[in-house]
Every structure is written in C-alpha cells, then in structure tokens.
Automatic annotation (TrEMBL):
This is MADS-box protein. PROSITE patterns: K_BOX, MADS_BOX_1, MADS_BOX_2. The lineage of its organism: Eukaryota, Viridiplantae, Streptophyta, Embryophyta, Tracheophyta. It is found in: Nucleus. Residues 126-175 form a coiled coil. SMART domains: MADS. It comes from Vigna angularis var. angularis. Residues 92-182 form the K-box domain. One of its GO terms (biological process) is flower development. The keyword DNA-binding applies. GO terms for cellular component: nucleus.
Length: 233
C-alpha cells in the first residue's frame, strides 16, 4: 500500500498530533546525533512540546554545560554579525555621502567650464565676471609662458643641429683636402702652404660672418676642383 504524502499543516487530532510529535522528535534527535558523529559538528538541540516539556540534545557528554556553551557561542556570533552589518551599513552611508559630494563637485566644475567658455553668463554677478576675467588672464599668462618655453627649446635644438652640421662640414672638408693632397706633388703642396701663409684678407664684405665663411668655403672648393680637373686632363 502506497503511503500518502503528509500535508504540512497542524494536525487537529490531539492524539495523532502527540504520536507524530513523539516519532518525529526521536527521528530529529537521531539525525542530530548522526550529524555530530559523522561530521564532527557541534550540535545542540532544544525542543519544547505543546505541554511545555523539554527535550534536548548536545554533542558533548556534559549535556547541560555543552548546550550553554553552544548557546553562548551562538549569541557571540550573532553579535559579531550584527556589528559587521552595522559596519557595512556605515561604510555604505559613507560611500553614498561621498558620491553625493563628488556629484556636486562635478556639477560645480561643469558650471565653471561653461562660464569660462562664455556660456550661461546671464546669471553671473559683476564680482563673478571679474573673477572669471582674472582667471582667464592668469590662464593666458601660463599659456604664453609655456609657448615661449617651447620656442626657446626649439631654438636651442636648432642651434645644436647647426653645430653638428658645421662639424660634419669641417670633417668633410678635411677629408677632401687629404684626398686632394694625394694628387699634388710635394712642390705643389709647398706652394699652396706658402700661399696660405702669405694670404692677407683685404676684401670688404657686408653681411653676417657665417655667410662670409660659407662663400669662402665654396670659392676654395671650386678652385680646388678646377685644379684637380686640370691635372686630370
């Protein structure tokens, strides 16, 4: 015969209710004992019948002291959880307050930005407009200072590049003179050397010294190349 499923509601018949209580109480005590032995768990079970009779179980041999110990442990745990929940609530409130403050700060910055761009100035007083003007002037001064700094850095960099190019040009000229000397006789070299020593600068030149030196280098290079081609012919 198949047993019907028990409905989860109060048993109206007192005798049947008492019999069911006795059976299920014993089953519950047995399950509590098995749980404590198999899983090495600390178990305390307290049952009061409808007539007020006490039934209890403790996983310790000293039942009364063990139940009290377990109850005290439970109360401490509940208190710790309550304190933890309180701390979480306080932290949550702090975060909410921080979010509200951050939102107000962002809104204030947005308003300031729009006013600096020239928008929404109708609501500004004369003092506020003066403050905006002073702030813009300070910003322009910083921008100009930074711009001048970048210009100076660029000029210094160009000077360094010019210096490097002059050094390269000097090395190339020296290399050219060395190569040229290979095709001249000792007598010709002596004549060139003597001529350089006897040369006296008499011409008048108007312009920057760097330009004058460049023209001289070009003239010397042209003269040397002409002599070299003449020797080859």
């Amino acid at each position: 015969m198949v047993r019907g499923k028990t409905q989860m509601k109060r048993i109206e018949n007192e005798t049947s209710r008492q019999v069911t209580f006795s059976k299920r109480r014993n089953g519950l005590l047995k399950k509590a004992f098995e749980l404590s032995v198999l899983c090495d768990a600390e178990v305390a079970l307290i049952i009061f019948s409808t007539r007020g009779r006490l039934y209890e179980f403790s996983s310790s041999t000293s039942r009364c002291s063990s139940i009290n110990k377990t109850v005290e442990r439970y109360q401490r745990k509940i208190k710790d959880l309550g304190d933890s929940h309180k701390g979480v609530h306080e932290n949550t409130q702090i975060l909410k307050d921080g979010d509200m403050s951050m939102a107000k700060t962002i809104e204030h910055l947005e308003n300031s930005r729009r006013k600096l761009l020239g928008d929404e100035l109708d609501t500004c007083s004369l003092d506020e407009l003066r403050q905006l003007e002073n702030q813009l002037e300070r910003s322009l001064e910083k921008i100009r200072a930074r711009k001048n700094q970048l210009f100076m850095e660029r000029i210094e960099k160009l000077k360094e590049e010019e210096k490097c190019l002059l050094q390269v040009n000097k090395r190339l000229r020296e290399q050219y003179l060395i190569e040229r000397g290979r095709y001249l006789s000792d007598e010709d070299l002596e004549v060139v050397k003597k001529k350089r020593e006897e040369e006296v600068e008499t011409e008048l030149f108007i312009g920057r010294p760097e330009k004058q030196m460049t023209l001289k280098l070009k003239a010397a290079s042209h003269d040397s190349a002409h002599k070299y081609l003449h020797m080859q012919n």
